Amino acid sequence: MKILVVGLGLIGGSICKALKKYTSHFVVGCDINHDIEYSALRDVAIDRDFDGNFEGFDLVIVSLFPEAAEKYLRENIAKFSPDTLITDVCGIKGEFSKRVKTLAEDSDLRYLGIHPMAGKEFGGYHNSSGDLFLKANFIIAPFEDSRESDIELLKNLAAEIGAGKIVVTSPENHDKMIAYTSQLAHIVSSAYVKSPELSLECGFSGGSFQDMTRIATMNEHMWTDLFMQNRENLLYELEILIENLQKYSDALKNFDSDEMLRLIAEGRQLKEDNLRHRLGQPN
After folding, report:
1. d(CA 68, CA 96)
2. The CA-based dihedral angle spanning residues 120, 26, 63, 87, taken in that order and rounded to the nearest 10 degrees
3. Torsions phi, psi of 233, nearest 5?
4. Average of pLDDT values for 191-204?
């Protein structure tokens, strides 16, 4: 295929590098910063930088923040050749995907969103890697009327770049699950580092601290966009977390060792059951 990747940050740059490393597709890279395009050319991460011609692509992968992705498509989607498949890698689908689908269909194009579950603490092209998606979960979020051939095309592409478990689900279910598995964790990490003890942690922290704080370096512009576009699902998960945290707080306030033991055992059992389920073992 001839593929255009719009936005050569961490994810877009990694997609380009993975496509060139593991496939024979022809890759064109487009970024607002032309120095990044030149870097991608030097790295042989792309075959050609974008020359302003929107026609002739089989697949367009928009790798921008949700707000920027929608703006880009509103301004340019009508310039692509008819029947081009448009996808995006945004961490939000739902209403966003519905709006983009309408834009695509108004221009005789096809749209189907994806979400590779991969990342790093730091973004940008220079942190990108052709192996970023190896064994990573990869979500495809079609609509009921999406073409089966488009779903298969994106599943095959995900497999080509090394994805592990490939999940096909609705845009609405994507947002519901991502609120719990990704967005809530980012809020917890951001809140966790606001302790006054943060500046004193050196020499006292281990793996648990690193695990809890790794994603606090998230890009505030992108994640605010993601949180606000998934507000209801995220609020639901956040309120459940606050309710559960209150139980631990109450046990401490009340010197209630039995309740603390019960809460910890309950959490342990739930996680052990989750691990057995992942491995296909009976509870």
Report:
1. 12
2. -120
3. -65, -40
4. 93
Strand, coil or helix: 49: strand
Query: Which is nearest to 69 in space by CA: 138, 133, 151, 9?
Result: 9
- Strands 113-117, 137-141: pairing kind: antiparallel
Radius of gyration of the chain (CA): 21
- CA–CA separation, 161 and 21 (whole Å): 8
- Of 16, 7, 141, 140, the C-alpha closest to 72 is 7
- DSSP assignment letter at 168: E
Angle, nearest 10°, between helix axes 171-178 and 94-106? 150
List Cβ neighbours of 169 (8 Å cut-off, separation of 6 or more). Answer: 139, 140, 141, 177
- Exposure class string for 137-172: b at 16+ Cβ within 10 A, else e: bbbbbbeeebeeebeebbbebbebbbbeebbebebe
CB distance 183 to 230 below 8 Å: yes
- Summarised one tens digit per residue, pLDDT across range 118-147 is 988 888 999 999 999 999 999 999 999 999
For the record, the structure tokens of 117 come out as: 């579950």
For residue 96, the surrounding DSSP H or E stretch is: helix 94-106
Can you tell me whether residue 139 is helix, strand or coil?
strand
Check residue 231 and report its DSSP letter: H
Instruction: Report if pTM > 0.85.
Output: yes
Closest CA to 189 of 223, 222, 233: 223
